[in-house]
C-alpha cells in the first residue's frame, strides 16, 4: 500500500481513524499522514545544488544520508519569509525516497475519522497543484488541507531528486 491516506470515495474505510501531522505555511494549516513522516528537525545549514528547480533549497547530510530539501513555500508559490525558531524540516518518505520539506512550524499529531475527509473544492489551492490535495478536513474553527506527497512532484522531478 503506497499511501496510508484513505481515499475520499472509499466506503468501507470511512470510519477508520487516521493520524496526521499538521503543519503551518503562510497562516494556513496542512496535514500529511503520520506514517510518511520519519522525523522533524530544526533548520540546519543547507548546501545549495546548482541547476535544480527553484523550490529545491539544496541538500543536507542526515546521519550519513544525503537528502534533498524542498521549500514548501516556493513549491506552493507563496511569498518567502526569513526562517525563525519555529521553522522546521519535516523529513518524509515520498515514494520510498527520504526528502526534507521546510515548513513554517509543526503543530501536532491529530486523529481524524476517514468520514471527516471531504473532497477539496477546486478553488481551495491557488498555488498548489490540485492533484496533490487528498482532501480537506473541517473541524470546528479549523480547516486542514490534506496533502498527498506522492502526487506533489512530476516523474522528472522525482528522478532529479534521486540523482542529488
3D architecture notes:
This protein is mainly β. It has a single domain (17-163), classed as Beta Barrel (OB fold (Dihydrolipoamide Acetyltransferase, E2P)), CATH 2.40.50.180. The protein is 8% helix and 45% strand. The chain is built from two helices and eleven strands. A six-stranded mixed β-sheet has the order 8-1-2-11-10-9, with no helix packed on it. A five-stranded mixed β-sheet has the order 3-6-7-5-4. A hairpin with a 2-residue loop joins β10 and β11 (142-147). The longest helix is centred in the C-terminal third of the chain and has 9 residues, at 155-163. It is globular and about 45 Å long.
Descriptive key words:
164 residues, mainly beta, OB fold (Dihydrolipoamide Acetyltransferase, E2P), six-stranded mixed beta sheet, five-stranded mixed beta sheet, 8% helix, globular
Secondary structure layout:
Elements: E1 17-25, E2 28-33, E3 37-42, E4 56-62, E5 65-71, H1 72-75, E6 88-94, E7 97-103, E8 105-113, E9 117-118, E10 133-139, E11 142-147, H2 155-163
Parallel strand pairs: 2-11, 5-7
Antiparallel strand pairs: 1-2, 1-8, 3-6, 4-5, 6-7, 9-10, 10-11
The tally of beta strands, per DSSP, is: 11
Secondary-structure element order, as H and E?
EEEEEHEEEEEEH
In CATH terms, what is the fold-level topology?
A: OB fold (Dihydrolipoamide Acetyltransferase, E2P)
Report the CATH superfamily: CheA-289, Domain 4
Placed side by side, the strands forming the largest sheet appear as 8-1-2-11-10-9
Share of β-strand residues: 35-45%
Q: What would CATH call the class?
A: Mainly Beta
Termini separation: 26 Å
Shape: globular
Instruction: Summarize the amount of helix as a percent range.
Output: under 10%
Mean pLDDT: 83
Radius of gyration in whole Å, from Cα?
16 Å
Low-confidence stretches: 1-12
Amino acid at each position: 500500500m503506497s499511501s496510508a491516506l484513505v481515499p475520499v470515495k472509499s466506503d468501507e474505510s470511512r470510519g477508520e481513524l487516521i493520524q496526521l501531522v499538521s503543519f503551518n505555511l503562510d497562516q494556513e494549516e496542512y496535514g500529511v499522514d503520520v506514517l510518511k513522516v520519519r522525523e522533524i528537525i530544526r533548520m540546519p545549514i543547507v548546501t545549495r545544488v546548482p541547476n535544480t528547480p527553484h523550490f529545491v533549497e539544496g541538500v543536507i547530510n542526515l546521519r550519513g544520508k544525503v537528502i534533498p530539501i524542498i521549500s514548501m513555500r516556493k513549491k506552493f508559490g507563496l511569498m518567502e519569509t526569513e526562517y525563525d525558531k519555529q521553522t522546521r524540516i519535516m523529513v518524509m518518505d515520498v515514494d520510498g525516497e527520504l526528502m526534507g520539506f521546510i515548513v513554517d512550524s509543526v503543530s501536532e499529531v491529530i486523529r481524524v475519522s476517514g468520514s471527516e475527509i471531504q473532497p477539496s473544492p477546486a478553488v481551495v489551492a491557488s498555488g498548489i497543484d490540485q492533484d496533490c490535495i487528498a482532501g480537506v478536513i473541517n473541524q470546528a474553527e479549523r480547516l486542514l488541507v490534506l496533502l498527498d506527497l506522492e502526487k506533489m512532484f512530476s516523474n522528472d522531478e522525482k528522478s532529479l531528486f534521486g540523482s542529488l
